[in-house]
Amino acid sequence: MASGPKGSEDPSSLQCCVCGHQAQLFELPGITAKYCLECSADVATSILLTTEIDAATLAGQDACGLIAECSQLSTRLLERAQSA
Predict the structure, then answer these.
(1) Phi, psi of 52 (to 5 degrees)
(2) Do residues 71 and 37 touch, judged by C-beta distance below 8 A?
(3) Rounded to whole angstroms, what are the CA distances from 17 to 22, 32, 36, 64?
(4) Do 80 and 19 meet the contact criterion of CB atoms below 8 Å apart?
(5) Using CA of residue 8, residue 39, residue 19, residue 64, what is the dihedral sign?
(6) Are 27 and 44 in contact (CB under 8 A)?
(7) What is the pLDDT of residues 43-77, one digit of tens each?
(8) Contact 67, 53 (CB under 8 A)
(9) Which stretches within 1-84 are classed as H helix?
């Protein structure tokens, strides 16, 4: 018997959209891709950081620390994706 949202997905073929690992996958609101726990946390964090960077920039505040953190996170996600 097939499983998945529409009964058509084979659970053994489900892989994280970033790292490619076969694991329990999670969906983030408003995003159709599915991620493993580690990648979903990093993707969610990057979304929040981007929002905070935009808000700080619009308010005329210094966003250097947020930008540096976002850069490190992006590098980590990229490395994980390239190792897949």
Answers:
(1) -70, -35
(2) no
(3) 10, 10, 8, 29
(4) yes
(5) positive
(6) no
(7) 999 999 999 999 999 999 999 999 999 999 999 99
(8) yes
(9) 37-58, 64-82
Please tell me the pTM assigned to this model: 0.77
Domain residue spans of the chain: 37-84
Please give the structure tokens belonging to residue 23: 């694991």
Instruction: Give the distance, in angstroms, between the CA of residue 78 and the centroid of all CA atoms in the same chain.
Output: 11
Q: Helix or strand or coil: residue 9?
A: strand
The answer to whether residues 23 and 16 touch, using CB atoms and an 8 Å cutoff, is: yes
Q: How far apart are CA 14 and CA 36, in angstroms?
A: 10
| DSSP code of residue 21 | -
